[in-house]
Amino acid sequence: MYRYLSYLTLFVILSPFSLLNAQIDRVSADYRVDDLASFRVTFSARYHENGGPARAFAAGDTLRYRFEWDFGDGNTGRLPVVMHSYTAAGTYNVTVTVTDRDDPLMIFTSDVLPVTVEEVFEVPNVFTPDGDGINDYFIIRSDGVTPLTITVFDRAGNVVYKHTSPVINWDGRNPSGTRVRPGVYYYVITSAEPVYNRTGFVHIYYNR
User: Count H helices, E strands: the chain?
Assistant: First the structure.
């Protein structure tokens, strides 16, 4: 019985899934812009103990702490790690406030974190959908908010792919689910925002 309790106590202290015993000095915020959608940002709350380096909060820490994000655009979040999509390019002042649920007087607010999101529109001219995990997808990097419609044609003028979405991510298969032949394909991209209208060619290779 005592051995069981000892193991249980050790698990609670060392478990990476919660921060039940941390003595927080201050909190800070970090962020990462999505690789596909430039307006989509993932924010992470971090804590510091005794002037030490920043450490990430875990999902289980919501049992002990309350998280309040201010994304600088009128929207808020309630988790230690949260994704937020902005609707326009610009620089936003972001903060996170962490409150100890057991001691509401223990309130920590991060310094202001300036976050700049920019309009991006990048269309590749080659990809290799051969399943080797390298450049397998035709990915259009944009703001991730504005809907885009792409139509891809083969040399004979047949439509091999058509899709409408804020994020375009084609695996090289036609509507029947078969991989298209290697070669050169013509694409047309249209949008309600003229800046995203584009035509061009994409080269498809295999085993390269």
Answer: 1, 16
- In 50-182, DSSP assigns E strands to 55-56, 65-70, 76-77, 81-85, 90-100, 107-109, 113-117, 126-127, 138-140, 148-153, 159-165, 168-170
Residues 56 and 108 in one domain: yes
Q: Alpha-carbon distance 207 to 58, whole Å?
A: 41
| Rounded CA separation 23/1 (Å) | 30
Say how many C-beta atoms besides its own lie within 10 A of residue 80's C-beta.
Answer: 24
* Predicted TM-score (pTM) of this structure: 0.78
pLDDT tens digits, 69-91:
999 999 999 999 999 999 999 99
Q: Which residue range forms the structural domain that includes residue 78?
A: 2-117
Tokens of 140: 């259009």
